[in-house]
Amino acid sequence: MNILAWVVLGLLAGAIAKAIYPGHQGGGLLTTMLLGIVGAFLGGTLVSVLETGSLAFTATSLSIPGVVVAVLGAMLAIFIYQKFARRAY
C-alpha cells in the first residue's frame, strides 16, 4: 500500500475511532493519523491470527472491511493507551 493510502486510511480510521470511543482523546491531525495506522496494524494482525491461527504482522487494506478492522484496532489502541496512561500518574 502506498504512502497516500496509509495517510487516508489512518485519518479515516483514527477519526472514526475517536468519534465512536467514549470520552475525550485529545491530539491533533497527526495523532489521529498515527492512531489509525496503529489500528490498521493491530486489527490486521488480530484478523490474521483469527483466520490462520499463526502470528503474522500485517495491516489492512484501504477497503470497506479494511477500514472497519482498522477502526476496531484503533479503538483497541485507545483503550490500551488509556490504561497505561492512567497508571503513570
Number of helices: 3
Structural class: mainly alpha
Helix coverage percent of residues? over 70%
How many structural domains in the coordinates?
Answer: 1
Largest β-sheet summary: none
Report mean pLDDT, rounded to a whole number.
83
Share of residues in strands: under 5%
How far the N terminus sits from the C terminus, by CA atoms, comes to 38 Å
Q: Number of DSSP strands?
A: 0
Instruction: Outline the low-pLDDT stretches.
Output: none
Please trace the helix and strand order, writing H or E for each element: HHH
User: What general outline do the C-alpha atoms trace?
Assistant: globular
Radius of gyration: 13 Å
Structure in words:
- With 89 residues, the chain is mostly helical.
- The chain has one domain (3-21, 29-88).
- Helices cover 75% and strands 0% of the residues.
- The chain has three helices and no strands.
- Helix 1 packs across helix 3.
- It is globular, with a radius of gyration of 13 Å.
- The N and C termini lie far apart (38 Å).
Brief synopsis:
Helices cover 75% and strands 0% of the residues. With 89 residues, it is mainly alpha-helical.
Give descriptors for this structure.
3 helices; globular
Give me the secondary-structure topology.
Blueprint: H1 3-20, H2 29-52, H3 64-88
Helix pairs in contact: 1-2, 1-3, 2-3
